[in-house]
Design brief:
The complex is a heterodimer of chains A (133) and B (222). Chain A is built from five helices and five strands; from the N terminus they run βαβαβαβαβα. With 133 residues, chain A is an alpha/beta fold. The radius of gyration of chain A is 14 Å and the shape is globular. Classes of the chains: A alpha/beta (133), B alpha+beta (222).
């Protein structure tokens, strides 16, 4: 089954093209330019991986990351940012981000990370269902 | 005075650091868009090799996007250059409206992050002052930064300049949030220190929902 990916970035010119390129590699990609919309979309649909710009209007990356993780702890989140400060990388990982990568991303590397994220998500889901049993 | 100068020097470095970090972030965004377009071109060439057809309009759109981003980067770097040259001369005669426009452009990302729009309503006639361009930019940025935090429900900060007998006044208007408890004290030591050095006055009026900065037309004249 193809990876379900949500990409969140307020740079529309970046968002549309990276989405198209990831789709061309066989993944099911949804997009939004708003952090608030992303939170609603996560409530309504199940995603394996969210790739999200760290600096979004209205809500910063930490706020959005926290909000999404509260609703869907199993969703794997990769943060994209122009410049990453080490303290932000550490804080993001503490809040549950799988990775923080700098723009411009290397697509091959990003695709590998998406695949790795889906595996990590399966592990979380597996652990959850084992607990329930 | 020593402690005050230290505070001003520190806030100056913080201002410079904040602006250059923001500029580098914006440039990275531009590079990311150009990079994706280059990557997509590669993808399309690969598809062509496999016998697919590509509409010429598609390539035209990509070329337009790249050109748009090059113009964007050019504007960002022009602003960065103006910021860098603001320290060339410690005292200089400048058009305050131009300096204010530059501060607004440099603050674009900070405004976007807060969902605030900054609306400069500056007249066409120049507002010439002899002052320290860098310190003035720093003071105007600190005022704008606070103003963006205290914008009213409509999330608009309006900027107006006017000439008076006391000098040139810069108004930061529509600050409905001034009625509430501020996130930080304002003006704090940084702003007060800059006002002393620039011989400027800063007033905050919750009643009028505005901050007013008055700058003498010549920093060396009483």
């Amino acid at each position: 089954m193809s990876e379900k990916v949500l990409i969140v970035d307020d740079e529309k010119d970046f968002l549309d093209i990276i989405a198209e390129r990831i789709r061309a590699r066989g993944m099911d990609v949804s997009t939004t330019t708003s952090a608030e919309d992303a939170i609603h979309m996560v409530e309504e649909k199940s995603y394996d991986v969210i790739i999200m710009d760290f600096m979004m209007p209205g809500m910063n990356g930490f706020q959005t990351l926290k909000a999404i993780k509260e609703k869907k702890p199993e969703v794997q989140i990769i943060l994209l940012t122009g410049n990453v400060l080490e303290e932000n990388r550490i804080e993001a990982k503490k809040l549950g981000a799988l990775d923080v990568i700098e723009k411009p991303p290397d697509l091959k590397d990003l695709i590998q990370k998406i695949k790795k994220a889906k595996k990590a998500q399966r592990t979380v889901r597996g652990k959850k269902s084992a607990k329930r049993k | 005075m020593g402690a005050k100068l230290e505070t001003v020097a520190e806030t100056g470095l913080q201002f410079f650091g904040k602006m250059t970090a923001s500029i580098s972030h914006e440039i990275k965004n531009v590079l990311a868009i150009i990079n994706e377009n280059a990557g997509l071109l590669e993808d399309l060439v690969h598809m062509l090799d496999q016998g697919a057809e590509i509409e010429p309009q598609r390539l035209k759109n990509m070329s337009r996007t790249v050109m748009k981003q090059v113009s964007r980067a050019d504007a960002i770097l022009k602003n960065m250059n103006r910021l860098a040259h603001s320290v060339d001369e410690s005292i200089k005669t400048i058009d305050l409206n131009e300096i204010l426009e530059l501060v607004v452009s440099l603050s674009h990302r900070f405004a976007a992050m807060r969902d605030v729009s900054v609306d400069p309503k500056l007249g066409e006639s120049p507002m010439m002052v002899r002052t320290s361009p860098f310190l003035l930019m720093n003071l105007l940025w600190l005022c704008l930064d606070f103003a963006m935090d205290t914008a009213g429900d409509d999330k608009v900060v309006e900027l107006v300049t006017q000439k008076t007998e006391a000098g040139i006044q810069v108004f930061f208007k529509r600050l409905g949030g001034l009625a509430g408890t501020p996130l930080k004290p304002f003006p704090a030591e940084h702003e007060k220190g800059l006002c002393d050095l620039l011989r400027a006055e800063l007033e905050v009026s919750a009643e009028n929902q505005e901050i007013v900065v008055t700058i003498g037309e010549d920093i060396d004249r009483d």
